[in-house]
UniProtKB/TrEMBL annotation:
Name recorded for this polypeptide: Mechanosensing system component YbdG
Membrane-topology descriptor: Multi-pass membrane protein
InterPro entries registered for this protein in UniProt: LSM_dom_sf, MscS_beta-dom_sf, MscS_channel_2nd, YbdG
Cellular component GO terms held in the UniProt record: plasma membrane
An example Gene Ontology molecular-function term: mechanosensitive monoatomic ion channel activity
Subcellular location: Cell inner membrane
Keywords for the protein's UniProt record, in alphabetical order: Cell inner membrane, Cell membrane, Membrane, Stress response, Transmembrane, Transmembrane helix
An individual GO BP term: cellular response to osmotic stress
Pfam families documented for this protein: MS_channel_2nd
Principal location: membrane
Gene3D superfamilies: 2.30.30.60
Every Mechanosensitive ion channel MscS domain range: 191-259
Residues spanning the membrane: 25-50, 77-98, 104-125, 146-166, 172-189
Length: 414
């Protein structure tokens, strides 16, 4: 630029009788105001043009990625770059005779340019993350963790660049010093590094997705994963509280992911009735005749009784004692009843494991366990189905002369 133009006011003031120092400061102040006003209006005009163009492109575009760019202010930040660049060019033009101040202002504008660039990068990455969340295959992936990793590196480079600008030391010397102080850096960024490694392993091994129901007893978490970041995993518990878990804990500790159950055909019912051992006995012919009134097991009793009688007759079994030969027991018939009841229950998935089994005796009694799967996996419906089944079984026990074990209450003494 022509140095004469930026000295017009200075020459006029000096000729008017003002001393040179005051004229220089006044000339500088006026030039600064003009430069800032010019930068402001340029910024406003460029922003209006970019906004108009970006909105038109967003409406015409088939993808909605540009909508996220606009929403995250990428055009707005880019609009600042051109006026800032013009200000950098105008500094030498206005700061004639103020070399030290010119140097400081140039450093300030350069730092501002680096920060603005970082904001542009951050907005672009945020837009990418928001866009990927709209895609079904990325919706349950921890993309936010990778965005955070990129931004950490971007901010580290940006901070080193700012230090280099302020101290006038070359950037590579900062990285050399970083290598020497790597132990300190590793200590400072320990959680981030552990989180990065854990996040990659979680993603590659598909251990946890957003929306998964997980149980993590160590941290008191039992609910749905709502966010996976570089350092933490947020779980919304069923009582609507939020539990925060370190990401690296997912690979260093044991937790339970219920996704397999949710993707399967049913939710497991595994619960036992504790039968009082004193109520278990062999069945007499009169008992069998009475039990045949229970329609669900009537075919079974007819068939089984015939087989047992044929066997006992063929082997000349003395039936004066019930223990001799083959016999039906009330718990065995009840076990068959429970199995048939489950087979006919509309809420039980017949295509998955279904059995009624007797577990090892305990001091309390004989556990008779129901092992089946509810077709409805929703928690409240699952609990209703399970309660409905055991309501019926508990009510059915007396028809088989069986009793559930209960701890006797202490007798009150007066």
């Amino acid at each position: 630029m022509n140095d004469g133009f930026n000295r017009i006011l200075y020459n006029y003031l000096v000729e008017g009788g003002l001393n040179e120092t005051a004229a220089s400061y006044l000339n500088l102040a006026v030039l600064l105001v003009l430069a800032l006003v010019l930068a402001y209006f340029l910024d406003l005009i460029i922003w209006k043009v970019l906004r108009s163009v970006s909105i038109k492109l967003a409406r015409k575009s088939k993808t909605n990625f540009d909508n996220f760019l606009v929403a995250n202010k990428v055009p707005r930040y880019i609009a600042h770059i051109i006026p800032l660049s013009i200000l950098v060019e105008l500094v030498p033009f206005g700061f004639i005779g103020f070399d030290y101040a010119e140097k400081i202002v140039l450093k300030f504008l350069s730092v501002l340019f680096v920060v603005l660039t970082l904001y542009v990068v951050k907005s672009v990455f945020t837009s990418i993350n928001d866009y990927l969340k709209t895609k079904p295959r990325f919706r349950d992936k921890p993309m936010g963790s990778y965005i955070q990793v990129f931004m950490i590196f971007a901010w580290v480079v940006g901070i080193f660049t700012i230090f280099a600008i302020i101290t006038e030391i070359q950037v590579w010397k900062f990285f050399t010093a970083l290598g020497a102080g790597s132990a300190v850096v590793l200590l400072i960024f320990k959680d981030s590094i552990l989180g990065l490694v854990a996040s990659i392993q979680v993603s590659i091994n598909d251990m946890v997705r957003i929306g998964d129901w997980i149980s993590f007893d160590k941290f008191g978490a039992d609910g749905d994963v709502i966010d996976i970041s570089l350092a933490t995993v947020k779980v919304q518990n069923f009582d609507k509280t939020i539990t925060t878990i370190p990401t690296y804990a997912l690979i260093s500790d044991s937790f339970q992911n219920w996704r397999g159950m949710q993707e399967s055909g049913g939710r497991r019912i595994k619960r036992a009735l504790i039968i009082n051992q004193k109520s278990i006995r062999f069945l007499s012919d009169a008992d069998i005749e009475e039990f045949q009134k229970i329609q669900l097991i009537q075919p079974y009793l007819n068939s089984k009784s015939e087989q047992i009688n044929t066997y006992n007759t063929a082997n000349n079994i003395n039936k004066e004692l019930a223990i001799n030969g083959r016999n039906l027991t009330n718990i065995g018939v009840f076990r068959k009843y429970v199995n048939d009841y489950l087979e006919n229950h509309s809420a039980v998935n017949k295509g998955m494991t279904l059995m009624v089994r007797q577990l090892a005796p305990t001091p309390q009694g004989i556990p008779l366990e129901v092992y089946a799967f509810s077709s409805d996996k929703r928690w409240e419906n699952y609990e209703y189905v399970m309660a409905d089944i055991f309501d019926h079984l508990l009510a059915a026990l007396p028809y088989f002369d069986l009793q559930v074990y209960e701890i006797p209450l202490p007798i009150a003494t007066s």
